[in-house]
Inverse folding.
């Protein structure tokens, strides 16, 4: 019941704040956080100090990033009077070294009733300590909200290696475990990650843009479009997997300079164009059920956001305010579309709420913010900071009140936040 | 007889004696091809002059070609969010068209670029529009489409990295690269 009330409070605060457009609204996550006190970790085993330290620091970072917990900074707490000290939940956990790795026991005590309301037991190998901190953090979010958190997730992005050369990279959503996924030594950009982890991207390795990626989970990277390398395409960009992973939307250009949204079917190898409009149609993004696409088009003059069915019908314009609205990203729950709006040469993040047809500003124009992508739980956005920030990845909750760098890795672009498989 | 005259007589006599006693040996003869007959000297000089002039003409032709190529491959520029060929760039494209007519073996890659103020993906589409607009204009000047290849790099390959209009205007461009 308490969880339902918290969720309702969260949603109602969203709605209340969402009535005033173009202000920093949607502050629910900042106002309804559960205050969590974490007991000093208990552990059994030799040489556990480093393991416990790694686990604890990862867990704290995940819970802070979750957008639903506020960690109590009290050095000590009177466990009989936690509620009076502003604490909602108490987390205690025990790490035990086993023959094959570690065992973790965690329990959550409600500060009001002083009863254990959630507990979990985990067993894991010695190399997965960060991942299991992520899993516990996501379970904590699940216990509180009924939906898993995004700690056990990853961010894929393009990054400049040297002038003219970019490659695709991936990291955990807390900025750890950075790995390079492509090594083409060419301009390689615009990654998309399917729900089963398959990668898709654009590379200029053959001298012209082509869409490469994985046809099967864990498979080798191969050319996907065009099928035949002799079929020289004037232009292609922005591949985005459909939620079913069987097709992807992308942008195909012609010699007349038009660029249209199309869908490529991996089974039939056929391309179906969805737009036939003069000018620019680009940046497709799917709704969670794969029945609609939002995209950017300049058919009315400057770039604005549009919506259409996945067969290209029922096209309608979403945004009208401002002269440059672009880079749409559909939320995992399907009710919002994040995008960027340009004002005085800088971009700010906005959210378009489909329920009321209004836009709400997330970041202010202190610096430019580009290429938003939703966390899998829909509570946060990752985006690229301004060039002056060196192309760092940032994350923000939906209030825009908490904006933090994901890592100190610079020269990044086009982040995509996805679940971890 | 002075000592000098005596010495000369002795040396002369000994040379005569040696020549008389030695077996006949082949006297080295200069290779005829290395020594131009006196009567052909003028023709040789003229040939050399002709070769030199031809070489100079070739070098000048190469210089002229390189100069023309450099001028023909000069970038053209676009207004913000636009892909329309500017009036001031039309003479550049006419020069490029003339160059391509003069050197029919040359093909050109036309790459469209944008400044940093658009999104990555929108700018790729805008770069495609700029490259295509340039191709269309050159086709209008009589250049066969098969000699023109368009490509877009959007804002991926800036030539200037500052955030001001002077820099942005240099990045909003179409670049020309010859393909032999």
């Amino acid at each position: 019941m308490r969880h339902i009330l918290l969720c309702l409070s969260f949603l109602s605060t969203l709605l209340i704040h969402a009535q005033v457009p173009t202000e920093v609204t949607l502050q629910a996550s900042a106002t309804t956080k559960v205050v969590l006190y974490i007991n000093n970790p208990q552990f059994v085993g030799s040489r556990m100090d480093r393991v416990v330290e790694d686990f604890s620091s990862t867990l704290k970072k995940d819970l802070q990033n979750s957008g639903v917990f506020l960690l109590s900074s009290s050095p000590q707490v009177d466990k009989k009077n936690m509620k009076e000290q502003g604490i909602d939940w108490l987390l205690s956990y025990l790490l035990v070294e086993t023959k094959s790795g570690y065992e973790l026991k965690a329990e959550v005590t409600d500060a009001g009733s002083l009863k254990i309301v959630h507990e979990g037991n985990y067993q894991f190998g010695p190399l997965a300590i960060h991942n299991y901190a992520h899993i516990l953090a996501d379970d904590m979010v699940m216990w509180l909200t009924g939906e898993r958190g995004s700690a056990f997730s990853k961010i894929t992005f393009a990054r400049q290696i040297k002038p003219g050369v970019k490659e695709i990279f991936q990291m955990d959503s807390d900025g750890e475990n950075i790995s390079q996924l492509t090594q083409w030594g060419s301009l390689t950009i615009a990654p998309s990650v399917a729900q089963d982890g398959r990668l898709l991207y654009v590379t200029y390795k053959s001298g012209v843009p082509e869409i490469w990626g994985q046809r099967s989970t864990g498979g080798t990277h191969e050319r996907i479009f065009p099928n035949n390398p002799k079929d020289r395409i004037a232009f292609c960009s922005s591949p985005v997997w459909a939620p079913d992973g069987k097709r992807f939307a992308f942008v195909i250009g012609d010699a007349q300079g038009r660029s249209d949204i199309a869908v490529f079917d991996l089974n039939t190898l056929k391309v179906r164009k969805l737009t036939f409009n003069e000018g620019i149609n680009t940046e497709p993004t799917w709704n969670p059920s794969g029945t609609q696409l939002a995209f950017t088009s300049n058919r009315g003059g400057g770039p604005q956001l549009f919506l259409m069915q996945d067969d290209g019908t029922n096209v309608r314009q979403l945004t009208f305010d401002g002269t440059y609205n672009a880079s749409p990203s559909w939320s995992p729950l399907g009710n919002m579309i994040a995008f960027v709006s340009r004002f005085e040469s800088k971009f700010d993040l906005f959210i378009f709420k489909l329920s009321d047809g209004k836009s709400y500003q997330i970041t202010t124009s202190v610096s430019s913010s580009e290429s938003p992508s939703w966390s899998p739980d829909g509570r946060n956005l990752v985006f690229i900071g301004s060039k002056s920030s060196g192309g760092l990845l940032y994350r923000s909750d939906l209030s825009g009140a908490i904006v933090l760098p994901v890592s100190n890795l610079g020269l990044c672009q086009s982040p995509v936040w996805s679940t971890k498989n | 007889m002075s000592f000098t005259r005596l010495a000369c007589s002795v040396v002369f006599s000994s040379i005569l004696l040696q020549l008389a006693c030695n077996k006949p040996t082949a006297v080295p003869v200069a290779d005829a091809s290395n020594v131009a007959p006196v009567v052909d000297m003028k023709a040789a000089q003229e040939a050399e002059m002709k070769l030199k002039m031809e070489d100079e003409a070739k070098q000048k032709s190469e210089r002229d070609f390189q100069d023309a190529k450099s001028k023909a491959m000069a970038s053209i520029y676009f207004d913000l969010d636009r892909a329309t060929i500017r009036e001031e760039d039309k003479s550049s494209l006419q020069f490029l068209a003339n160059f391509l007519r003069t050197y029919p073996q040359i093909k050109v890659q036309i790459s469209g670029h944008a400044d940093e103020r658009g999104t990555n993906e929108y700018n790729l589409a805008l770069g495609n529009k700029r490259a295509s607009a340039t191709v269309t204009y050159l086709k209008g000047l009589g250049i066969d489409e098969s000699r023109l290849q368009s490509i877009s790099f959007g804002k991926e390959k800036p030539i200037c990295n500052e955030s001001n209009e002077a820099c942005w205007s240099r990045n909003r461009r179409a670049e020309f690269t010859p393909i032999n």
The first strand of chain B starts at residue 76 and ends at 77. Chain B touches chain A at residues 81, 83, 116-122, 124-126, 128-133, 135-136, 145, 149-153, 156-157, 161, 163 (CB under 8 Å). Confidence is low (pLDDT under 50) at residues 13-17, 19-27 of chain B.
